[in-house]
Amino acid sequence: MPIRLDTKSPSFADAFATFLASKREASADVAAAVADIIAAVRARGDDAVIELSRTFDRVDLSGRIRVTEAEIDAALKEVPAETLDALKFAKARIEAHHSRQLPQDERYTDAAGVELGQRWTPVDAVGLYVPGGTAAYPSSVLMNAVPAKVAGVPRVAMVVPSPDGVIAPLVLAAARLAGVDEVYRVGGAQAVAALAYGTASIAPVDKIVGPGNAYVAAAKRQVFGKVGIDMIAGPSEVLILADANANPAWIAADLLAQAEHDTAAQSILVTDSGELADAVARAVEAQLTTLPRREIAQASWNDHGAIILVRDLEEALPLVDRVAPEHLEIHAEAAEELTARIRHAGAIFVGAYTPEAIGDYVGGTNHVLPTARSARFSSGLGVYDFMKRTSILKCTAASLNLIGPAAVRLAEVERLDAHGRSILIRTNAGPTDA
Amino acid sequence: MPIRLDTKSPSFADAFATFLASKREASADVAAAVADIIAAVRARGDDAVIELSRTFDRVDLSGRIRVTEAEIDAALKEVPAETLDALKFAKARIEAHHSRQLPQDERYTDAAGVELGQRWTPVDAVGLYVPGGTAAYPSSVLMNAVPAKVAGVPRVAMVVPSPDGVIAPLVLAAARLAGVDEVYRVGGAQAVAALAYGTASIAPVDKIVGPGNAYVAAAKRQVFGKVGIDMIAGPSEVLILADANANPAWIAADLLAQAEHDTAAQSILVTDSGELADAVARAVEAQLTTLPRREIAQASWNDHGAIILVRDLEEALPLVDRVAPEHLEIHAEAAEELTARIRHAGAIFVGAYTPEAIGDYVGGTNHVLPTARSARFSSGLGVYDFMKRTSILKCTAASLNLIGPAAVRLAEVERLDAHGRSILIRTNAGPTDA
Question: Where do the annotations place Zn(2+) binding (chains A, B) (predicted)?
Fold first, then answer.
């Protein structure tokens, strides 16, 4: 049974704090093993990649680390037309929304006559990690690769393990649709190391994104600095905020959609209606009986699920902000007003007709979102993640004369004389304009 | 003597690659020591902070971890009026420029009738690390705290070590001017741990920014995930791109302004004029003789400096992009055209009247910039670093009916049936609008 909390209980504050602090994942310490793998790939390149893939994926990659265009063509032919259409539809919607994120360059002259600006440029090369096996989701390929391409990244290189030689055709099809430029059948920490440091077969990239297991996460953490990385994603979560008029069956369906991901996933209902809470709990049990992934969903719901009863939805707002959920659904008459007042959430799904699953696939917004309370300080994946900003500064002799003295003074108090001199050598030269 | 490279030399490609790969910092492995410090602060809070400060800073912080407002008032009185005016001038210019970075929220309805949007909100609490001793720069306090305040962060908590009980009054003055809300006299990994996990005296924050030594960098890396962090900064660098008409004395002054920071700092001149190269080399030696920090600057210039001769500035562009310098100065007639064509640089200082030092203090742009080639994938500090984006999605019954089937199809091929069901339970209910 999921935990039930009630803000009217005198022990609520402690119980909620304990709930927030509860770990949903054993954090295996794989740092040392990963450091060895990275060192091996740096030292021996492709040979190490081939050896490690033989060990971990039971596959011989000699001479075939890269997936050929012909292999991708063949995979595309295996995908039914209806599925391909759905992927194309999703891709178009993701692309349309993300295109609106393209930031504007700026350049202006201020009152002192100093020109200031900022300019956005894409990263040259991005590596995209895609997990293998049952977690090889074509939708994830779209969600990671499309924003990179919208940003203008010229080279997107995808790595995906091929355990026992198998890569899901759908993943290759999604890569082709999303404009991925290169695909390598390598996974694990060795794939991250190859992307970061390069091998004879895999040219190094500048930034690595995408989800993965504990080894992949540890490898990303270790190569951070040498290359950029995206967030380290944890298990997924949803919080549904609902009033008494909400539909319990719909809420139950959404809680289970979250729970079926992973036994470590988390589904939370926050409501001011005890009746709704009970009805949702019953509906979850009823819907579970026919769910193919019921064992996973049941374990997630029993171990990490929660129903939190509040006096009114006003009281719920600070609780939601403390959870800072990856996904927040609002099923309430005042959905818009509540949306406006939430401060921390990766994504908000407004109103009962917006199940979170629509955002996983075709809503157009990104499904790579901050987990484990990190929406307090980070954002979902976007075009910004594949661009960087260069600041621009331009003085004339006159404007340097105007603002220079304050800089000289600050250089002096920081005892950085050469800083001051680099300004004085110009301003002492007199106010001739450049 | 700095290294001299010439693109006309047959060994240039190898020599340039070696130059790019050269490490300027011994990376001390302090990870284990830092992990112990973090564990101690998590377990014993203020007691551990006090013990560690006694050991590392030779100071007793019992009952006085926080710097009081009266102490900050007293520090302000110690700062000469001219210096305070310079700090205020710098703060106003940084604030004015960064205010233009505030991102716009967006909400729109697309052709399918789906409402999409993104909303930016500030982080609730930010921790700002400020190094102690001679590297306690008031300008760094402004550069880190002002963007946080422009972003709307309600709580900015600063930590600064007080070795032997001393904190520079200027640093406290800058904190007051910048609107820092709390100051703690704690440094090192223990300060980072306290900010990340909280103690009785220091409430936890959501994101930690600011420069520091190897211990601070390792601590930031280890608490990443629990809180957000900014980049891990390396030693500073400048690349000056100059044509034959550039002023060698000005260039020498700017190369030395960089070199005086740190023996690990790097100053690079790239020019198409052998005469200018020689004149700059002579000017550096001449200016060094009277520089207070000449030992540091000389070591930096000799060990890490470089003069690279190119056939023409066109040939320089890909070299500059490979260096991806933190600071790029362009002293050339074609400065604007060259600026437009550079892809990777933290900041560009356009034209001879824009010494890099002006950007360190009063230009208005941020001086916290990506080092060690990381401008390939990351940006200088800005308002964005203190905000996060929540995506918004809102369907009606009609728009869910329109886009739902493709999502159901994709859920099916990903074998996430509960995802598909959460859409079908609504669309099967018929096209009644919400």
Answer: 258, 261, 360, 419
Structural domain boundaries of chain B?
Answer: 3-25+234-363, 31-104+123-229, 395-427
Tell me the H-state helices in A179-268. Answer: 188-197, 214-223, 248-259
Q: Which residues contact A47 (CB under 8 A, 6 or more apart)?
A: none
**Domain B31-104+123-229 annotated CATH 3.40.50.1980:** yes
Place of tokens 């551990």: B48
Buried residues in B324-352 as b, exposed as e (16+ CB within 10 A): bbbbbbbbbeebeebbeebbbbbbbbbbb
From chain A, the residues in CB contact with B389 under 8 A are: 379-380, 382
Which of A419, A424, A432 is the mutation pick for testing B, counting most B CBs within 10 A?
A419
Question: Which candidate in A182, A237, A260, A326 is catalytic?
Answer: A326
B115 is a catalytic site residue = no
The residue with tokens 């509040």 is A310
All residues of chain B having their beta carbon less than 8 Å from the beta carbon of residue A92 are: none
Sequential pLDDT tens for chain B (434 residues): 899 999 999 999 999 999 998 877 766 689 899 999 999 999 999 999 999 999 999 999 999 999 999 999 999 999 999 999 999 999 999 999 999 999 999 999 999 999 999 999 999 999 999 998 766 799 999 999 999 999 999 999 999 999 999 999 999 999 999 999 999 999 999 999 999 999 999 999 999 999 988 899 999 988 988 999 998 788 899 999 999 999 999 999 999 999 999 999 999 999 999 999 999 999 999 999 999 999 999 999 999 999 999 999 999 999 999 999 999 999 999 999 999 999 999 999 999 999 999 999 999 999 999 999 999 999 999 999 999 999 999 999 999 999 999 999 999 999 999 999 999 999 975 444 33
Q: What is the CATH number of domain B3-25+234-363?
A: 3.40.50.1980
Do the first three CATH levels of B3-25+234-363 and B31-104+123-229 match, i.e. the same topology? yes
Question: A31-111+121-229 adopts what CATH topology?
Answer: Rossmann fold (3.40.50)
Q: Do B394 and A350 count as a contact with CB atoms less than 8 A apart?
A: yes
Q: In angstroms, what separates the C-alpha of A142 from chain B's closest C-alpha? A: 12
B344 is catalytic: no
